[in-house]
Amino acid sequence: MRLSEGAIYYCRGERGNSVYNTIEKKETNQWTMIAAMGKGRSGIGVIAYAGYVFAVGGYDETTHLRTVEAYNPDTDSWSVMASMVQCRSKFGIAVINDRLFVVGGCPPLLASRATILKLTTGLLSLT
Questions:
Q1: Are the C-beta atoms of residues 78 and 66 closer than 8 Å to each other?
Q2: How wide is the angle at C-alpha 106 spanned by C-alphas 100 and 103, nearest 5°?
Q3: How many other C-beta atoms can be found within 10 angstroms of the C-beta atom of residue 44?
Q4: I want to staple 45 with a disulfide (CB 3.0 to 4.6 A). Which of 56, 58, 67, 88 is the partner?
Q5: How confident is the model at residue 125 (pLDDT cuts 50, 70, 90)?
Q6: Which residues contact 13 (CB under 8 A, 6 or more apart)?
Q7: Is Repeat there in the keyword field (predicted)?
Q8: Are 37 and 55 in contact (CB under 8 A)?
Q9: Within 10 Å of residue 45's Cβ, how many Cβ atoms?
Q10: CA 102 from chain center: how many Å?
Q11: According to the model, what pLDDT value does residue 35 have?
Q12: pTM of the predicted model, to two decimals?
């Protein structure tokens, strides 16, 4: 099973002092839980590309994160990928020419900086 066209993925984020690692998927008017991410976080960047869902950075109520995880719908599992160089949350995220761009975000010193990760056959490598 690959990512379904029209599916919506919802990352719970935070509520009060709690952060969550749970993800729900909506297809044909029905929500279902998928495998949980390895780490709960809020302010996360999420993007679907090449049959995977990438969860990038975020905040775990203690620190900003640089971790990257990729969801594989074939195995209903998450894999830890190469981390970003800098920790960040609440940023813009896009894929252009097989590169994942992470722009701005927190902490505030990152507002004018970008991280670029090269996407290669489902794996991330820093560029």
A1: no
A2: 25
A3: 28
A4: 56
A5: very low
A6: 19, 20, 41, 42, 43, 44
A7: yes
A8: yes
A9: 23
A10: 11
A11: 93
A12: 0.81
Condensed to tens digits (0 to 9), the pLDDT of residues 42-96 reads 889 988 888 888 999 998 888 889 999 999 888 999 999 888 888 888 888 998 8
Q: What are the Cα distances from residue 90, in Å, to 8, 10, 29, 115?
A: 20, 16, 28, 14
AA identity, residue 100 = L
Single-letter residue type at 1: M
| Cα dihedral 101, 106, 66, 58 sign | negative
Listed residue (22, 57, 46) closest to 36, CA to CA: 22
Tokens of 95: 């894929």
**Structural domain boundaries in the chain:** 43-126
Residue type, 63: T
Only one residue has tokens 């800098």, namely: 86
Cα 11 to Cα 98: distance, rounded to the nearest angstrom: 23
Asked whether 82 and 125 are in contact (CB, 8 A), the reply is: yes
CA dihedral 16, 20, 25, 31 (to 10 degrees): -50
Q: Of 1, 7, 5, which is closest to residue 27 (Cα–Cα)?
A: 7
Residue 83 · residue 52 · CB < 8 Å? no
